[in-house]
Design a protein that fits this description.
By secondary structure, this protein is of the alpha/beta class. It folds into two domains: 142 residues, 3-Layer(aba) Sandwich (D-Maltodextrin-Binding Protein, domain 2), CATH 3.40.190.10; 102 residues, 3-Layer(aba) Sandwich (D-Maltodextrin-Binding Protein, domain 2). It is 39% helix and 22% strand. It has a six-stranded mixed β-sheet with strand order 2-1-3-10-4-11. Strands 7-6-8-5-9 form a five-stranded mixed β-sheet. Helix 2 links the parallel strand 1 and strand 2.
């Protein structure tokens, strides 16, 4: 379980930095969150809401991809949103096209790719690159996400590893669904996703991070949506998430916190 934040300390921090929040108890922020940082924002939400009177309406939304739920697709349809929490490189694109405010952008945590199996299933050896490759070739089925980690695996790592055609036939990208859930119900023997996205899923065992030589760090960041109707409250939320007080929750979610400036 994640550690609950000290409500009084949180309230003092927020009220000191944004005194107007106390006068806006009815404010609701719509937060679009990628799965990699969803665990952290959901854990922060109850104490944050109690301390500030600001309600967080959190919606799951991939950082990229063609699914209607993806953050770029939602914003393109002008869906209401105040804050986006997502892969940093994808956020940069939103900033560049004017959909997110550049001066509100904060980096929150580094994420790394892990592998999972169904709960109780044997855990393949991934301690070395040779063992990792053998485990992939021997697997009956492999699933990976359609977001940052899966794009890297499909287009960079797997081709670099020169895996067989038989492997390519049994590996598939999963759109708009946590890979861990696919593994938990037995639809894939091995699943790959960011550690922070696998940790909340019931019914799986996390084997561990893939080898360092195969690893790719993904940066998760946040920003205020340009069309936010509550930009001050949105900035206050991001300020808290980037503070030292939120670092423990971010770490417990499976991310490596970015040191507060």
């Amino acid at each position: 379980m994640f550690r609950r934040l000290p409500t009084l300390a949180l309230g003092a921090l927020l009220l000191a930095s944004t005194p107007l929040l106390a006068a806006q108890p009815a404010t609701t922020l719509t937060v679009l969150s990628s799965g990699g940082i969803m665990g952290a924002i959901r854990e922060v939400a109850p104490a944050y809401e109690k301390a500030t009177g600001v309600k967080l309406d959190i919606a799951a939304a991939p950082s990229m991809g063609d699914t209607p739920q993806a953050i770029p697709q939602r914003l393109a349809r002008n869906e209401p949103a105040d804050v986006v929490l997502m892969v940093g490189s994808a956020l940069d694109k939103l900033v560049a096209n004017g959909q997110a405010l550049k001066d509100s952008r904060v980096d929150l945590g580094q994420s790394f790719i892990a592998m999972a199996v169904r709960k109780g299933a044997p855990k393949p050896d991934i301690s070395t690159m040779e063992a990792f490759k053998q485990s992939l070739e021997s697997a009956q089925s492999v699933a990976y996400s359609d977001s940052a980690s899966g794009v890297y695996l499909a287009h960079i790592l797997f081709p670099r590893m020169q895996l067989s055609d038989a492997f390519k036939a049994k590996a598939r990208m999963i759109p708009a669904e946590p890979v861990g859930e696919v593994v938990a119900r037995g639809d894939a023997q091995l699943g790959f996703q960011q550690l922070s996205e696998l940790k909340p899923v019931q019914g799986i065992d996390i084997v561990g991070l893939i080898p360092d030589q195969a690893q790719k760090m993904t940066l998760y960041s946040g920003a205020v949506v340009s069309k936010s109707t509550h930009p001050d409250a949105a900035r206050a939320l991001l300020q808290y998430l980037a503070s030292k007080d939120a670092a423990k929750v971010i770490q417990d979610s499976g991310l490596k916190p970015i040191p507060a400036q």
